[in-house]
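Much of our argument rests on the idea that a fold can be written as discrete symbols. In the encoding step, the backbone of a single protein was reduced to a row of integers, each denoting a local shape. This step matters because it turns folding into a mapping between discrete strings. For completeness, the protein is quoted in full, as a sequence line and a line of structure tokens:
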Amino acid sequence: MATSSLSLRRKGPVGEALFAWEGMDRNRHKQVGEMRAASVNVVTASLRRQGITITKVSKKRLRRGKTINLKDLMTFSRQLTAMLKAGVPLVQSLSIVGSSHPNPSMGAMVLAIRDDLETGTSFSNALRKYPRHFNALYCDLVAAGENSGTLEVVINRLATYQEKTYEIRKKIKGALTYPIAVIIVAAVVVTVIMLFVVPVFAKTFESFGATLPAPTLAVIAISNFFVHDWYILLAIVGGGGYFGFNAWKRSAKVQAAVDRWLLKMPVFGNLIEKGALARWSRTLATMFAAGVPMVDAMDAVAGAAGNDVFRKATLAIQSEITTGTSMAVAMQSTGVFPPLMLQMTQIGEETGSMDDMMSKVADFYESEVDEIAKNLSALMEPMIISILGILIGGLVIALYLPIFKLGAVVK
């Protein structure tokens, strides 16, 4: 059974609906597809002009597309690799992958890319129309694959690269999720205590007619601020968060400062640094394996680590290697990369196996991230419990301290 190239674009004129159809072409081969049209009659007439005899037409319910994420792109790359390995032409592969993708938004984008290919656009240029989803690394490697006739191999490497990157991000996010979640819960609990519990105790203490202990007075003062001046607190937290986020989003200097601070964070800084090194090495290995020249590869590698410190170091390396400096020496002069990475780079340059060496470096740091992420949960749990114990326990003691000393405070 063949699959017709006719399909929907993501958007159509108002009043159109999506129709799924089945029919037979002039050679009596079964054809299936989808089409946006105003009515069944329009679908039938359009397909008849193409020599297709309709046997079935049904109106489909449009699904609301979801945001396209890295997992969707991983699925696309892996499915496309499987289709190309099976010998299916690229245009037909995109038709099948786009029609079967679980995310309607991703499926519509793939079908739009397929339509561009049918008009004579190269695959890499069609992908460049969607820079939000296909970055320079992806497009450059696809272009290299098209020029060398190794598109199947390149897409397979990109699929592996995306999967490795996804796993690294998943591990780092998993390690950071637990402490962040606990901090949020603690903030909510403290807010509830300050707004509703402490005022009840404060009214009770008023009847004592005696001077309350200093910790109790401090807690009551904080509670009064929460109750009466909550809008100030909200403005400080909300306004600070809003302006801080916008400053980070719009200012390269703020982003650079945040990235430097993240690498120096206690406990988490080591995890973030190892994750950045793993992504940097994996990207470089992928570029070398695809035959991209070292100087050109640095443009894509610069942003792969996701940290401004490594981006600036990569651009410095690119500048030095253009003057004939070896990569190992250029990396060492930045003072960013660890000795192990420098040694592996030097070996790779001497043996001509940079892609293999960088791949091994990436494997090493990915295993390091995995180990740190596992140990981090065990390390953070007692620390968080201790902090929560001091915070919540301190509040409870401050509230019950007058009761414990009831005989001394009541006249």
